[in-house]
């Protein structure tokens, strides 16, 4: 079964709806570079709304280590998700399990970067180019998904209820992650879209 993470929540009711629908993980974007940015107080409130057995992930992107430490202290996420050019050592320094996002927008050039994060709990392959911001609904060539890495791989970038079945068939990821495909506008989730996406994932036969 393919795991699902919905990212970029800003409203309590959306977190509650996603959890009730059965999503595996929810993400809060705490880099100020994002249009889905939530501050410490808002993130703490959103975190409180996450029920047991749903993983809370906080996304950062080349943010100050002291700020990331403050997030860990105040929000207590289960995992961090790094979207910048942070090194493996820098990602691991916060004492919290982490996902490292790899920019696949430049195709084969990205494959070397996939091997640079031995301490990551998982790798998230996203459609943006190196140096570009994610969460913009851009997909990459799913045939580039590597098959020889030890870590679980999460597929991201431009996923919707309409394309996720084909994405899973081609890329065979451990999990999928999305923001734009379940929104009416950045940060505002749509319950019907969240429901349709989960139904589309669950309809895919297990490999
Ligand atoms: O969601 C954001 O605003 C964001 C900002 C900076 C880096 C990453 C961001 N989101 C992540 O991007 C991927 C793909 O998103 P989309 O489905 O294509 O919109 C996903 O992992 C988001 O968590």
TrEMBL record:
CDD domains: PRAI. Residues 4-198 form the N-(5'phosphoribosyl) anthranilate isomerase (PRAI) domain. Keywords: Amino-acid biosynthesis, Aromatic amino acid biosynthesis, Isomerase, Tryptophan biosynthesis. Its EC number is 5.3.1.24. The keyword Nucleotide-binding does not apply. It catalyses: N-(5-phospho-beta-D-ribosyl)anthranilate = 1-(2-carboxyphenylamino)-1-deoxy-D-ribulose 5-phosphate. SUPFAM superfamilies: Ribulose-phoshate binding barrel (SSF51366). One of its GO terms (molecular function) is phosphoribosylanthranilate isomerase activity. The keyword Isomerase applies. GO terms for biological process: L-tryptophan biosynthetic process. Belongs to the TrpF family. This is N-(5'-phosphoribosyl)anthranilate isomerase.
């Amino acid at each position: 079964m393919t795991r699902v993470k919905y990212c970029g929540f800003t409203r309590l009711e959306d977190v509650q709806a996603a959890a009730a629908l059965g999503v595996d993980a929810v993400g809060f974007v705490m880099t100020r570079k994002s249009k889905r940015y939530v501050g410490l107080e808002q993130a703490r409130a959103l975190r409180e709304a996450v029920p047991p057995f749903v993983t809370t992930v906080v996304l950062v992107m080349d943010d100050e280590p002291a700020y990331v430490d403050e997030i860990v202290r105040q929000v207590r996420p289960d995992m961090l998700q790094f979207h910048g050019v942070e090194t493996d050592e820098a990602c691991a320094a916060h004492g919290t399990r982490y996902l490292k996002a790899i920019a696949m927008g430049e195709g084969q050039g990205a494959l070397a970067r996939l091997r640079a994060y031995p301490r990551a709990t998982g790798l998230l392959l996203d459609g943006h180019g190196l140096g570009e911001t994610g969460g913009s609904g851009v997909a990459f060539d799913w045939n580039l998904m590597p098959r020889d890495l030890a870590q679980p791989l999460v597929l991201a970038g431009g996923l919707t209820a309409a394309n996720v079945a084909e994405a899973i068939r081609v890329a065979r990821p451990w999990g999928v992650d999305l923001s734009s495909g379940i929104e009416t506008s950045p940060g505002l989730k749509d319950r019907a879209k969240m429901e349709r996406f989960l139904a589309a994932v669950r309809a895919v036969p297990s490999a």
